[in-house]
Amino acid sequence: MKPQAEGVKLSEPTVLKNQKCPMCMKDTLTVYEYQTEVPHFGTAYLFSVECSNCGFKLSDVEFENSLNPVKWTFIVENEDDLKPLVVKSSQALVKLGNIMKMEPGIGSDGFITTVEGLILRGKEILQQLYESEEDKDEKKKIWDLIKKLNKVLWGNAKLKIVIEDPYGNSAIVSEKAKKEALKVKKK
Ligand SMILES: [Zn+2]
Fold this sequence. Notes:
With 187 residues, the protein is an alpha+beta fold. The protein has helices spanning 115-132, 136-153; strands at residues 14-19, 29-38, 42-51, 57-63, 70-76, 85-88, 93-96, 100-102, 111-114, 159-165, 171-173, 178-181.
């Protein structure tokens, strides 16, 4: 399984077979590690793991030199703003305006894509919600959110994208992107 990486070239993978699966504890996990160069950020590693026994799957991305806890803000204003690369780790929280959030943690994959690819992922999540929702009013609300994302993809609306990564393995590769230190809540 190849992790999602749009707009960058991946190396041949290093493959580790017969690793212990964290879910079923059998030695049936295969780990694939790819390397790529992200402009201005250096080497990044993309991993994906797949268990042939229980079907567990995961992919993630990590910079060779991770940043400090980071908050990125980027405003999509026109079609050119859909092109910059986005690196999103599994630990990152993504906000697409007030439209939707992608929460970090279990079930959240790390990937490299473009701003457009990120918005398309958000749209896919909303479409799945739309299909599984049975309440008519809720369905209509989700449909309106999908329409808002479509307008952004067509260059007809602005969108503020925020990515918060407490481990510093996420980035928006554009001079227009604003980078701030992320305040990490202490427990
Ligand atoms: Zn397993």
